[in-house]
Write a structure and sequence with these properties.
4 helices, six-stranded mixed β-sheet, single chain, alpha/beta, globular, about 160 residues, Stationary-phase Survival Protein Sure Homolog, Chain: A
């Protein structure tokens, strides 16, 4: 059976601690691809880049086996470029986050992390994460254990 493809992004950039912790936890459950902005992109919602170039570069990620790229575009650009041009197939799961802090009520409509989650359309295997307090360390592991139980590995990316 083919290994599950997991795409991870965020809106705060490739250097974020939460992104690294999520990628580390996810690596136990499949082939992890991190495609994240090259810097802060909070509050860009689901915007995509239309009238400018978007640069994408391989990134030496600190977690063994994780394929990573940095992108000059928005979080939604990261997901779109990853799915269309970088990954071998559409990911089975998209994880967006982990961001530290709140994103509640009407603020959710501005979130680049949530906007990125919308970019993988249709099949329900998309999750956006925000953690508050000191839950960052255990949060990723708990979330991924739940995913391992709820979403079985597939033979290929969903089309």
């Amino acid at each position: 059976m083919k290994e599950r493809l997991i795409l991870i992004t965020n809106d705060v950039g490739i250097h974020a601690n939460g992104l690294e912790r999520l990628a580390e936890a996810a690596s136990a459950y499949g082939q992890v691809w991190v495609i994240a902005p090259d810097g802060q992109r909070s509050a860009v919602s689901h915007s995509v880049t239309l009238y400018a170039s978007v640069d994408v570069f391989p990134y030496d990620y600190p977690i063994k086996g994780v394929r990573a790229f940095t992108c000059s575009g928005t979080p939604a650009d990261c997901v779109r470029i990853g799915i269309l041009y970088l990954m071998p197939a559409k990911p089975d799961i998209l994880l967006s986050g982990i961001n530290f802090g709140y994103n509640m009520g009407s603020d959710i409509q501005y979130s680049g992390t949530v906007g990125a989650a919308f970019e993988k359309k249709g099949d329900g295997s998309t999750f956006s994460f925000y953690l508050v307090g000191n839950l960052l360390l255990v949060g990723a592991a708990v979330i991924l254990v739940a995913l391992a139980v709820l979403i079985p590995a597939t033979g290929q990316g969903r089309g």
